[in-house]
Structures are given as structure tokens and as C-alpha cells.
Design brief:
Layout (H helix, E strand, L loop, with lengths): L2 E8 L11 E8 L2 H14 L2 E4 L6 E3 L4 E8 L6 E6 L2 E7 L4 H10 L2 E2 L11 H6 L3 E2 L2 E2 L4 E8 L3 E6 L4 E3 L2 E3 L8 E11 L2 H18 L5 E5 L13 H7 L6 E2 L2 E3 L6 E4 L5 H19 L8 E3 L1
Parallel strand pairs: 2-5, 3-5, 4-20
Antiparallel strand pairs: 1-2, 6-7, 7-15, 8-15, 9-10, 11-12, 11-15, 13-14, 16-19, 17-18, 18-19
The protein binds uridine-diphosphate-2(N-acetylglucosaminyl) butyric acid.
Length: about 300
């Protein structure tokens, strides 16, 4: 089936935080022909389209959402596309999980992505959020990206024509809705065992400092810019007394204060209240306004 439509899909079943009420519909597109079909049916579905990957950076409120979740189920495996001037281009479908791409590159002896070891998410969402970890932002490794809009269909966009920021990507196409379909990354050669070693070190560090197996959406607040190294949102929340703070089934993690975790049966109302509490505590203590990093759907 090029396009599968399902009505009344619960966001709590589509997000790693396990929170969120129903969306009007979900459209899962599994091949390019499905995109043409999507363009035909979208206007009739009556909701705003929202591109959704693994849902690992989303906090969705409990009431119903007038949204059509659009998922690019292009799970084309990573493959070497071209080698030139000592660099290698690797192409991957938007639906592929980022850890699969990172693993592929390691086995192929291609360095550049190992900082992203342990970052969940699919390729589409990871590019769309410019996922970053341990000094690597995915955007810095992007060569080009193939994007679909209802108006233009599929087109390749060179990375140099897009804009990238801290957990921010914009293909600068002037479109109200765009969906990443596939992406190409530019990588350098290195020894597989050296890449493996760096991946292991990064994962060990992440596991020791972040609640990697908890139901969370990663860091909820952006690190304020311009502060001394180490003074990130996690440290500020921690020093303001938020670490381990609970409300119902939700809590600021005891491992890393900038992770909101669902300890079981949490609600989005509790999550949003805790976020405001954390923001207020940091403001009272440091006169700093934390900005959310997680995408909040209210
Ligand atoms: N810290 C505390 N208490 C805490 C948490 C952290 O004092 O509860 C201190 C740490 O001891 C360390 C400093 O804060 O000195 C920085 O902590 P960490 O190395 O964990 O990094 P971070 O700045 O909190 C950022 C990203 C993470 C990314 C890591 C590693 C943001 C908001 N967070 O965290 O990204 O994994 O660096 O590169 O940019 C995400 O995007 O969802 C995310 C988790």
C-alpha cells in the first residue's frame, strides 16, 4: 500500500514520552507513489499536517489535536552512493533509524556520525531537528536532502541552500508543510575499530549521564547560549532543585535534570506543569528564561 490512512491515532502511541491525545488521522507513506496520493487526500482530511518520525522529541498535550500525522515510511537502508576526493556519500531513507545509519557507517569505515551514538530518532526527524550530541550536529554532515511538499512534489535541496541552527533546520523552500523523504551524508574514511571505540566511549558516557532507557523525549530545554561551559539547562535545573522533582507519573530525571521522564501513567498536563515549574525555579534562581527544546504540541 503506497499510502495507509488511519483515523483517530493516539499520540501517546506515537511518542517516546508516551503522552498525548488523539490526532485526526495518520498517513503513512511507504513509496513515492504514496506521496502523490497524499497530495490528493490531505486537503480533505481537515487537519494541519505534521511530519512525524520516531516521536522522540515531542511532548503532545492530552486533548484532541486537529492534526494529520504524516510519516515517511521510506526505510531504504543506508548505502554508499558515491566516493569522490577522499569523501564518501551515504544515502538513507527518512524512515530509517539513526542508530542503523551510525552502525552502517562504522562497518563501512566512515567517520563523522559516531558522536550521535545512542541518539534515537529516524533520519527524517533527526535531520529536521538537526540532532546533535558530543560535538556533532547531523546538519554538518548533510550533503543534500530530498524533500516533498504538496506543491513541488519531491526535490533535492543542497545543504548549502538550507539553514541550520541549534536543534533547528529549515530547507528554506517557503512551504507551509514539507516532509523529508531521504538524505545524503558526506563522510570521511577511518578504521572501523577506531570508529567503534569512539562509539563505545560516547555510549558509555551517555549511559552514565542520561536516562537512556527511560520513557523520555531527551532534553526538554535548550542550553542557554553564552554561559560558561557546563552551565547547561541540566545544571541550572539541578542547582535550582528540580532534579528528581515529581508530579503524578512525571518527573525530572534523577540521572539528568533536563530529562522529563514518564515513570508510568504520567499525563501531558503533569508534564507541562512540571516544565513550567522548572522554568520558574530556574528564573527565580538565575534570572534566566529557559526555552523548550522538545517540540510541544498544545
Ligand atoms: N549537569 C548537572 N546536573 C544534571 C545534568 C547535567 O550538573 O542534572 C552538568 C554535568 O555534570 C555537566 C554539564 O551539566 O557538567 C553538561 O551536562 P551533559 O554533558 O550531560 O550535557 P548537556 O549540555 O546537559 C547536551 C545536549 C544533549 C546531548 C549532550 C551530549 C542540549 C539541551 N542537550 O546536554 O542533547 O546529548 O549535550 O552532547 O543541548 C537532546 O538534544 O535531547 C539532548 C539530550
Amino acid at each position: 500500500m503506497p499510502l495507509t490512512l488511519t483515523r483517530d491515532v493516539l499520540l501517546k502511541e506515537r511518542t517516546t514520552l508516551r503522552l498525548g491525545g488523539p490526532a485526526l488521522a495518520e498517513a503513512v507513506v511507504s513509496c513515492e507513489a504514496g506521496l502523490d496520493e497524499l497530495a490528493r487526500v490531505l486537503p480533505g482530511l481537515g487537519g494541519r499536517p505534521l511530519a512525524l518520525g520516531a516521536g522522540s522529541n515531542l511532548l503532545a498535550a492530552d486533548p484532541p489535536h486537529a492534526l494529520v500525522l504524516v510519516r515517511a515510511a521510506n526505510n531504504a537502508p543506508a548505502q554508499i552512493f558515491k566516493q569522490q576526493d577522499g569523501t564518501t556519500l551515504v544515502r538513507a531513507g527518512a524512515g530509517l533509524r539513526l542508530p542503523r545509519l551510525v552502525g552502517f557507517c562504522q562497518r563501512a569505515g566512515l567517520t563523522g556520525l559516531e558522536g550521535l551514538t545512542g541518539v534515537p530518532g529516524r533520519i527524517g526527524g533527526s535531520v529536521a531537528m538537526n540532532a546533535g550530541s558530543y560535538g556533532v550536529e547531523l546538519g554538518a554532515r548533510l550533503s543534500r536532502v530530498r524533500i516533498w511538499t504538496p506543491e513541488t512534489g519531491l526535490t533535492w535541496r543542497e545543504a548549502r541552500d538550507c539553514s541550520f541552527g541549534y536543534r533547528h533546520f529549515d530547507p528554506r523552500m517557503g512551504a507551509s508543510f514539507w516532509l523529508i523523504w531521504e538524505a545524503e551524508f558526506i563522510l570521511l574514511a577511518d578504521k572501523p575499530f577506531a570508529i567503534r571505540k569512539r562509539m563505545e566511549e560516547n555510549y558509555a558516557r551517555k549511559k552514565a549521564t542520561q536516562p537512556v532507557t527511560a520513557k523520555s523525549a531527551g532534553c526538554v530545554f535548550k542550553n542557554p547560549q553564552g554561559l560558561p561551559a557546563g552551565m547547561g539547562a541540566g545544571r541550572l535545573l539541578d542547582e535550582a532543585g528540580c532534579k528528581g522533582k515529581r508530579l503524578g507519573g512525571m518527573a525530572f530525571s534523577t540521572v539528568h535534570a533536563n530529562f522529563l521522564v514518564n515513570e508510568g501513567g504520567g499525563t501531558a498536563a503533569e508534564a507541562l506543569e512540571l516544565l513550567e515549574h522548572g522554568r520558574a525555579m530556574v528564573f527565580d534562581r538565575f534570572s534566566l528564561n529557559l526555552e523548550t527544546e522538545v517540540v510541544v504540541l498544545t
